[in-house]
Structures are given as structure tokens and as C-alpha cells.
Amino acid sequence: MNPTRPPVLIAGAGPAGLVAALTLLQNGIPVRIIDKDPNPRIGQRGPGIWPRSLELFNFLNVPEVNDLGKPAPKIRSYKPGSLEPLTESSINPHLEPTPTIPFHVPKLMGQQLLDVILRRHLEKFSCTVEMGTELRSIEQSDEGITAVLAKNGTLETFDTKWVIGADGAKGVMRKQLGLTFFGETRDDVRMVMGDIRLHGVGLDRTYWHRFGNFKERGVSLRPTDEIGEDGWQFVIFDADTDLTKLAQNEELIMEIMTSVLPMEVTFNKIVWVSEFRANIRMVNKLSEGRGFVVGDAAHVHSPTGGQGLNSGVQDAFNLGWKLALVEKGLADKSLLETYNAERLPVVSEMLDRTTKILNQAVKSENMTAPRSPILFMLGINYRFSNIVLDEFAIPGKPINAYGVLDEEHLEAGDRAPDAPNMLQVGQGESDVKTLFSLYRPSYHTVLVFVPSLAGATTILGALEAYDKSVVRSAVVLPSSAADVTVASPADLVLVDQEGHAYSAYLVEAGQTRVFVIRPDGVVGAIVHGVEGVKKYFSGIFLGV
């Protein structure tokens, strides 16, 4: 294969495809990313970004998502035909900020803006999305994949090593890999959604408004400045209207809105509109040979719960670091099997959970009912994975991949908690860090909790056997430690000034415990010392 050709082709440049590309690029793996649409997508689409995904964007060094995303406004419903409020509620459960959860407020950001942000980050690596370029077919061999692409009516044959299909529910990659897509299409949940610019007399932009009702005819309007200072994301429910025709008729959309909104409305522009019906489907597996699917290409579901985009970018992040290690020759190809093994149970439970929320919404006739904290996704775990190692956990517990966060327990396979105000010492400088600032998608971080620096010597010595570019070390000392200025071979020596790390990782001040944090911010191992570290890495790296 031509060495200048990128070893990874990504078909589809929505959030999942862009996160796959950025994760690989940050790992030093060149990618080619294509999208069949000639122009970037417009529209808010699924705008909800939950705390687990905000953490992911933090690890990818994309702070704009949290900084520019807006908290969900309160939802206000009204007495029929009037602007007199009936109820006020919050769609998101309240989560108290704690030192372990820096991003505790879910944010709303339209996919149009999210795509722009992620593309800008790709450009830092001289990578741009090739628009108007469609994946037609692939042919696999043991050595690689030959893909047939189409652009402006011209076919191109492209040889690569791996292909990631992020080309959506109607994409070709899933079919090319021969994967099934079982599930159901729900005709009881249909709606037209889109973005509109309008001005309504007395329509307060600090609220998300619900007029009418979900069963017969209703309109929801959520303010979004991303499309203009008069911009709204709208959803229309109408039992007596052909919604397919409605989505294609701007006049009818305005007519229905006028009939439901109890105020004088001036319409400026309909920016984007689409019919939506609840499809609930997932693949039987996420990969075949050298081809993979992520995001909507692998699973689609009800919009209730807003887990779709979030699950898609988390698929991509899980796959990205593993594919990078294999492509660098540092890990065996079998590591890629854990992408399917880890993500499929999560996706399956996620579909089950969002469908239950949907059924409840239909029953209560309230699509914006308050959500459960489980949707923050902080309890998603891979405790059942064969590449995580926990020398302290009690074996034989049932799989609960989509669990609720329980800060009283921490096992290998769980989300790694954050801890602020960590004082970096040694190397002639002092600095205050958070644990999250250490975690990045291109390397494992080994946290060595020890009472004193001397206790870390043998563990740090064992880490010398691993490639420094993919394994970093940090000694975490209690605030009572005395020998903090002694030179250490660790990449970082941190003093837990306020005890946040010891508390979050459930370590007593006098104990020695080692945590290996994976590149995706998951606890890969919790072990006593050297032997456990070696055992964990023997399941990841080749020849160690």
C-alpha cells in the first residue's frame, strides 16, 4: 500500500465520524474523512450533550463544546389558547457539583455548530472533510480494504487498511459489512422538527415553550441563538395531518403554528425541517474484519433521552484509541474485538432505556417530561470487559453497563473520576492540576497512590519497559507526605492537597494502590502493584 495514503478511511462527517477522526489524528494516525453531502449539514438536530460526552470533549481538548453550549431552559406549558402558564419544569435532573464531576450541567448545542467546531480541530492536523464524496462499496482482504468512492459522477478506487462507517442509519457501510439492523419503526410517535426564525409577541426567550398537546396538535419552541436572535428549534405534533407532506410544505408549517400559538407571530424564515418517526434498531455486531460502524450507522432510537449523538461519539472514542495502537504495531488486532464487546451491551441497554422513556412519554402525553440522572451517562461502564483488571472487585456480579453513578464504589471498567487542586511538585516548578487534565486519548495514565515517594520506586521502574509515548505515570501523594521534593522518575508527582483524589478513588492515606486510566478516561485496572500493572498491559500491548 502507498505509504502516503492514510491508513484509515472514515465515511460520514457527523459528530461520530469527526470524533473518530480527531481521536486518531491526536494519536498520530492520518485519516481520510469523506461525506456524501455536498454541503455541511444545517440544523440543530439532536442538540443535547450529556456530562459524559462533555468529559470526552475535554479529553480531546475541545473546550468550546462546554463553553458555548447552553443549559436547557425551563419548560413552560400553557392553558389552552392563552399565554397563561400552566406548569414550569426542568427537563434535566439537578446534579450537585462535586469535585469528581466537573461538567455537571448538560448542555445544548446544535449539530451544525458542533460540526463546525470539530472540523476546525481537524484542520489543526491539516485534515479537511471531503464533501460530496460517497462510499459506494468495499472489498476486504487480510491486508486491507479497497473502497470504491464516487464524486461528481466519477468513481475512485482507494486502498486503505481500515474503514469506519459513520454514514448514518441509511448509509452503505453497515450493508457492505453484512450486519443486521433489527428493531422496529414506531408509527405512534411521529413529529416534524426543524429550525425557524420567528417573532412572537410576548414569547419569552428564557423559556422552552409547549403549546397545545402531544396527542392531538402541539408545538414546542426552544430558543436557540445559534441560528439568529429570533431563532427557535420547533417540534410539531399533529394527529390529523400527513406529516410527510407537512415537512415539505412551509406554508402549512406556519399555518399549524399560527393555529396553536396564542399570540401574533411574524415568520422570518424556516431554516431546516425534517419529518421524524421513532426507529429503534441496532446492529448484531459493530465490526466485521477491517470495517467498523459507529453512531447512527450502528444504532438508532427514540429521541427521548437524547442519547443518540452522545452514544455515537462514545463509540468513536472507544474505537479510536484501540485502532491507533493496532495501527502503530503496539497492540494485537484482537484488541479491536473489544470495541464490539464493550460497546454492544451499552448500546443494547441504552436502547432499552430510551424506549421505556418513550413509552412513558406516550402514556403521559408529555415528550418533555423530566429525565432520570442515568442519562448523564456517568454510570456507563465496562466492568464486564476482558481487558479490564480489578484485583479488589468481587467477581460474578451481573452486567449493568448503563448503571447509575455510585461514587461510593469504583471498579475497573468505570468512568475515572476527576479531582481538582492537585499540586504538582518537583522538577523545579509547582503547578495546580486536575486529574482530568492528565487524561488524553493517546496514552494510558498510571496513577500510583503511595504514602511516600520511596514507595513508588518499584512500580515506576516496571513502567520503564513501556513506550513513553503511550504510557505516562503520575505519583499521587497524600497531603501529609514529607519527601515531596525528592527527584522521581515519574512524569508527574502530585500532592493531593485537599484529599479529593484519595476520596474519589477510595484510597486510604496509608495505602498503596495503582490505577491505570485508559486513553478513553475509563479505569482500565485497579491493582496492588507491579504484577497487576504488568498483567493489565499484557492484555493491551504486544510483546510485553
Can you give a write-up of this model?
This protein is of the alpha/beta class. Helices cover 23% and strands 29% of the residues. It is built from 12 helices and 27 strands. It has helices at 15-26, 51-59, 64-68, 111-123, 173-176, 243-246, 250-260, 308-327, 337-364, 457-463, 500-504, 530-538; strands spanning 8-11, 31-35, 48-49, 74-78, 85-89, 107-108, 130-131, 133-140, 145-151, 154-160, 162-165, 181-200, 207-212, 217-223, 231-238, 265-283, 287-288, 291-293, 299-300, 389-390, 422-425, 431-433, 444-449, 471-478, 492-496, 513-517, 523-527. The protein has an 8-stranded mixed sheet with strand order 5-4-13-14-15-12-16-19, sandwiched between helices. Strand 14 and strand 15 form a beta hairpin. The longest helix has 28 residues, at 337-364. It is globular, with a radius of gyration of 25 Å. The model has no long low-confidence stretch (mean pLDDT 93).
Topology, please?
Blueprint: E1 8-11, H1 15-26, E2 31-35, E3 48-49, H2 51-59, H3 64-68, E4 74-78, E5 85-89, E6 107-108, H4 111-123, E7 130-131, E8 133-140, E9 145-151, E10 154-160, E11 162-165, H5 173-176, E12 181-200, E13 207-212, E14 217-223, E15 231-238, H6 243-246, H7 250-260, E16 265-283, E17 287-288, E18 291-293, E19 299-300, H8 308-327, H9 337-364, E20 389-390, E21 422-425, E22 431-433, E23 444-449, H10 457-463, E24 471-478, E25 492-496, H11 500-504, E26 513-517, E27 523-527, H12 530-538
Parallel strand pairs: 1-2, 1-11, 2-7, 4-13, 11-18, 20-27, 23-24, 24-25
Antiparallel strand pairs: 3-6, 4-5, 8-9, 9-10, 12-15, 12-16, 13-14, 14-15, 16-19, 17-18, 21-22, 21-25, 23-26, 26-27
Helix pairs in contact: 1-4, 1-8, 8-9
